[in-house]
Amino acid sequence: MSELKKVRQLSKSESREIVKIAIEKNFLTKNEKIRQVGVYDVSDTSKIFIINSDPILLQIDGEIYPSLFNEIRSVLPKVVVDEGAIKHILNGADVMAPGIVSFPSGVKQNDLVSIRTQNNKIIGIGIVMESFEEKLAMKKGKVIKTIHYVGDPIFRICSKLSK
């Protein structure tokens, strides 16, 4: 079955609720013209929201996040990882302190960050974990929980939906 056939359009009230949450989290701007909102159910706990034909929002375990197809990804705080960490992240691993080359100042626990290569290519989106400052100082432990990365099942579906 075509991926597009699995997308269902949301009602106006459902659309308003998703757009409201996305605006509150700064994943959409108030002045964006929203023509239609659709949803693709990936699993019982994951959904992709298609806004104006673009798969730009995700819902994972009840939380709304931007997808790697959302322009907001480019303005998220940047965590830069070394070459050795890339293959692990692209296989779904969380970001470990020893693989971090650069970490933005001013971020706090539960902040959303973009995960980037040293060439500034965005390879994922993650959430800053607890005790990250200690882990960075010791160069030991998980610092970023990877929630979405290039090549993951959601990314592959988004790729098909965006064509």
The main sheet orders its strands as 7-11-10-9-6-8
Integer-rounded radius of gyration: 16 Å
Shape verdict:
elongated
Reported by name, the CATH topology of the largest domain is Archaeosine Trna-guanine Transglycosylase, Chain: A, domain 4
Low-confidence stretches: none
What is the H-and-E element order? EHEEEEEHEEEEHEH
Assign the structural class, choosing from mainly alpha, mainly beta, alpha/beta, alpha+beta, or little secondary structure.
alpha+beta
Q: What profile does the largest beta sheet have?
A: 6 strands, mixed
- Annotated CATH architecture of the largest domain: Roll
Number of domains: 2
**Residue fraction in strands:** 25-35%
How many DSSP E strands? 11
Fourth-level CATH superfamily of the largest domain:
PUA domain
Mean pLDDT across every amino acid position:
92
Our count of helices gives 4
CATH level 1 name of the largest domain: Mainly Beta
C-alpha end-to-end distance: 16 Å
Helix content percent band? 10-25%
Secondary structure elements and their pairing?
Blueprint: E1 8-9, H1 12-24, E2 37-41, E3 46-51, E4 54-60, E5 63-66, E6 78-81, H2 83-89, E7 95-96, E8 100-102, E9 112-116, E10 122-128, H3 132-138, E11 142-149, H4 153-161
Parallel strand pairs: 6-9
Antiparallel strand pairs: 1-2, 2-3, 3-4, 4-5, 6-8, 7-11, 9-10, 10-11
Question: Describe it for me?
Answer:
By secondary structure, the protein is an alpha+beta fold. The chain has 2 domains: 68 residues, Pre-PUA domain, domain 1 (Nuclear Transport Factor 2, Chain: A), CATH 3.10.450.120; 78 residues, Roll (Archaeosine Trna-guanine Transglycosylase, Chain: A, domain 4), CATH 2.30.130.10. It has 4 helices and 11 strands. Strands 7-11-10-9-6-8 form a 6-stranded mixed sheet. The protein has a 5-stranded antiparallel sheet with strand order 1-2-3-4-5, with helices on both faces. The longest helix has 13 residues.
